[in-house]
Amino acid sequence: MAALELTNISKHFGAIQAVSDVSLTLEAGQVVGLMGDNGAGKSTLVKMIAGNFRPSGGTMRLNGREIVLHRPLDARQHGIEIVHQDLALCDNLTAAANVYLGRELRVGFGPLGILDYRTMYRRAGALFKELKSETRPRDVVRQMSGGQRQAVAIARTMLSEAKIVLMDEPTAAISVRQVAEVLNHIRHLRDRGIAVVLISHRMPDVFSVADRVIVMRRGRKVADKPIATSSPEEVTGLITGAIETV
């Protein structure tokens, strides 16, 4: 049974049809690269899965059960997490504080309860170690590299025991070394049985880490196939329209 199944999902904003009749499945422990030019509908599709937008039509099933997401919190409660391109981190807080942002642990009860920093630091440190990241729980985010920031955002999804992680351009504007680090983080999520949707314009990244590639053009899905049976040249042709569909 697919972890996630979309059937004829559509979204329009007034007269603008952003996504048209997209159907796809996502299996547990699978990385799917979602590619397309700017305005192809990738981000709109992912935001519907994340609960930011309500679909105008179509159905969404999670583990075979139809769900309706009214807001991001609904998606999170179903085990769907999103790592935004801007990461949504607080630069003035530590790595551990960002991992637990909005989910802080406390000791004591009521107004006398205080934050349980010791437990949060210890658990965050274990997550960074699991990711093989150099990030330390007490590091302040503003002093971190792009790869370390990604580790914080990914650790946050692991803390919530997500079943599906949506990643929007995680390797944009970071160094080659940091790209390799982020791709290893994605592989780690896959190895934990987590399904990952990777939005990216970087062809080498998608072909390095994804099991399947989905290509969108003008709001429609024009390809959905295993990476092993595709090529960067074919995907480029699909994105630009030189190849209509496969």
From TrEMBL:
GO terms for molecular function: ATP binding; ATP hydrolysis activity. Pfam families: ABC_tran (PF00005). Gene3D superfamilies: P-loop containing nucleotide triphosphate hydrolases. Residues 4-243 form the ABC transporter domain. Keywords: ATP-binding, Nucleotide-binding. SUPFAM superfamilies: P-loop containing nucleoside triphosphate hydrolases. The keyword Thylakoid does not apply. PROSITE patterns: ABC_TRANSPORTER_1, ABC_TRANSPORTER_2. InterPro entries: AAA+_ATPase (IPR003593), ABC_carbohydrate_import_ATPase (IPR050107), ABC_transporter-like_ATP-bd (IPR003439), ABC_transporter-like_CS (IPR017871), P-loop_NTPase (IPR027417). The keyword ATP-binding applies. Belongs to the ABC transporter superfamily. This is Monosaccharide ABC transporter ATP-binding protein (CUT2 family). It comes from Mycoplana dimorpha. The lineage of its organism: Bacteria, Pseudomonadati, Pseudomonadota, Alphaproteobacteria, Hyphomicrobiales.
